[in-house]
């Protein structure tokens, strides 16, 4: 596109900003409930809603309350939720075997949600960190994160989630070769219509801090994730990763974190045209909530502005903890 600009006063940009009607008429992007994926944290128990201190307004919910949240999401028109497990400490081991247990907390929640709200698209998380004694996304040997052995474990985890009824598999682990391995396993096991939303460009970011509290992985993490997550200084590499994952069979791709990486979202959309998502991560959410709680910003306006920014950057959708709040506003139910 080559923008045409006439000379002043023939061109006055303020003409189209004169009234609300003209501003709406000339608006380029829109935010809708169809763009939202709501991440939820699931834990053991019944009727348990446990606040996540660093994420005001976010709770870890027992399966029965996850079902209620899914019903609320459906009523608000939110098309998808994404489940993250808070695993009991006893089930966090070096071999991560709980990750592919068909009856682990995540798989039980998938079954319960699909039974209650079958039309809700259910996205999962595929990474070993909620099940790992040392908080890493992959199997660890002598301080090294093993790639190929981890991919085998992730495939088992993927199949258990697909068997439980997952619609969208969300590999967030950043191992090499996992998308191809998962896609092949899904094809071979009768799950050919299960979609993969690849965390293709996931950066080694400090913005994930509150999330690690939410899933109980933060205090366990030994070292950092720099050998598998991306260097925040890199952009060309993100394009290569996205192309690689699309080629291996990803249906959708994600950039994560969100707002600090909008340049990557735009480039990804322009380069590949694939369904592209961003994750407005826990640290982004926490910063907005904390500043709003102090009265330093207008939290609601900043929430809406930040979500619109993803649409402007070319994203087809956003994973955001604000999903139900923004959906209520967009549906006139606030
Ligand atoms: N796989 C999910 C994450 O690693 C973090 C998300 C967040 O910080 O909200």
TrEMBL record:
The keyword Lyase applies. GO terms for molecular function: porphobilinogen synthase activity; zinc ion binding. One of its GO terms (biological process) is protoporphyrinogen IX biosynthetic process. It holds the Pfam family ALAD. Its EC number is 4.2.1.24. GO terms for cellular component: cytosol. Keywords: Heme biosynthesis, Lyase, Porphyrin biosynthesis. Pathway: Porphyrin-containing compound metabolism; protoporphyrin-IX biosynthesis; coproporphyrinogen-III from 5-aminolevulinate: step 1/4. It comes from the Bacteria. Homooctamer. This is Delta-aminolevulinic acid dehydratase. It comes from Pseudorhodobacter turbinis.
């Amino acid at each position: 596109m080559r923008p045409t600009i006439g000379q002043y006063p023939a061109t006055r940009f303020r003409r189209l900003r004169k009234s609300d009607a003209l501003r709406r008429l000339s608006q380029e992007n829109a935010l809708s409930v169809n763009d939202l994926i709501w991440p939820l944290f699931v834990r053991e128990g019944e009727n348990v809603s446990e606040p996540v201190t660093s994420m005001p307004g976010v709770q870890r919910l027992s399966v029965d309350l996850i079902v209620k949240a899914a019903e609320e999401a459906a009523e608000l028109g939110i098309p998808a939720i994404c489940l993250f497990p808070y695993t009991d400490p006893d089930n966090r081991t070096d071999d991560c075997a709980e990750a592919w247990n068909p009856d682990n907390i995540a798989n039980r929640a998938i079954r319960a949600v699909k039974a209650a709200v079958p039309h809700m698209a259910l996205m999962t998380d595929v990474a070993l960190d909620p099940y790992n004694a040392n908080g890493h996304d992959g199997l660890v040997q002598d301080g090294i994160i093993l790639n190929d052995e981890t991919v085998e474990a992730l495939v088992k985890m993927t199949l258990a989630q697909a068997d439980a009824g997952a619609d969208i598999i969300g590999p967030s682990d950043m191992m090499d070769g996992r998308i191809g391995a998962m896609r092949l396993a899904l094809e071979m096991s009768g799950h050919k219509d299960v979609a993969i939303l690849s965390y293709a460009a996931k950066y080694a970011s400090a913005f994930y801090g509150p999330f690690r509290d939410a899933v109980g992985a933060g205090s366990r993490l030994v070292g950092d994730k720099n050998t598998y997550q991306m260097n925040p200084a890199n952009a060309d590499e993100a394009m290569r990763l996205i192309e690689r994952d699309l080629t291996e069979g990803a249906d959708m791709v994600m950039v994560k974190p969100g707002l600090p990486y909008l340049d990557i979202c735009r480039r990804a959309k322009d380069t590949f045209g694939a369904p592209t998502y961003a994750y407005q991560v826990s640290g982004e959410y926490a910063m907005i909530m904390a500043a709003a709680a102090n009265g330093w910003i207008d939290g609601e306006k900043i929430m809406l502005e930040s979500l619109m920014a993803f649409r402007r950057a070319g994203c087809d959708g956003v994973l955001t903890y604000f999903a139900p709040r923004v959906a209520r506003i967009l549906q006139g139910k606030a």
